């Protein structure tokens, strides 16, 4: 995918980015309750790098998430993950899940389906590659740091979404029914001339590995 782009293209597109202003969290017009949901992950801190396990350089699994602060009166939750720094007019959608229970809760690692993983049976929508799956972060070499926005929304209803809803269908329902939201940012960068993890020469054992 994007890791196969030449470094020169990533460098040329360095200033071309969708921007955080374009992610769902900042475009649906939600005012009261903005960021009221506390969204976090045991795998990475807010604005910290995603471990390779959850990117195209590793197993490509969806990371674990947990949340608190879902307001009373909520009927369902929606999760959307977008790349705010994709070199596209709108953020690249990496995952959509709708109809989540309207309560404080969590998603385990690999809850979303991916290339070699069936997921845990969630109602998932289409990513920007038109797949009902988790699209692992895969920024172009030399394009700089990409910010992946994990966004959770509490809705006052349970919309009748299509089998695999896309971004616009979900945004329409969020604009009409979102009550509160939470945001968690994970980052990923592929420097110029990077070597993918599975292509790198094995290193000698040096104690426990620390994901970064």
Alpha-carbon Rg, integer: 17 Å
**CATH level-two architecture:** Alpha-Beta Complex
Judged by helices, strands and strand pairing, the structural class is: mainly beta
Summed over residues and divided by their number, the pLDDT gives a mean of 85
CATH class division: Alpha Beta
For the termini, the CA-CA separation is 22 Å
- The CATH topology corresponds to Phosphatidylethanolamine-binding Protein
Low-confidence stretches: 1-13, 194-212
Please tally the helical runs, counting DSSP H or I stretches of 4 or more residues. 3
Count of domains: 1
Task: Give a topology summary.
Layout: H1 7-12, H2 24-27, E1 38-40, E2 48-49, E3 65-68, E4 76-83, E5 92-100, E6 105-107, E7 123-124, E8 146-155, H3 167-177, E9 178-188
Parallel strand pairs: 2-9
Antiparallel strand pairs: 1-3, 3-6, 4-5, 4-8, 5-7, 8-9
Account of the 3D structure:
The strands form two sheets. Strands 2-9-8-4-5-7 form a six-stranded mixed sheet. A three-stranded antiparallel sheet has the order 1-3-6, with no helix packed on it. It is 10% helix and 25% strand. It is globular and about 50 Å long. Residues 1-13 and 194-212 have low confidence and may be disordered. The chain has a single domain (2-187), classed as PEBP-like (Phosphatidylethanolamine-binding Protein). It has helices spanning 7-12, 24-27, 167-177, and strands spanning 38-40, 48-49, 65-68, 76-83, 92-100, 105-107, 123-124, 146-155, 178-188. The two termini are 22 Å apart. It is built from three helices and nine strands, in the order ααββββββββαβ. The protein is mostly beta strands and 212 residues long.
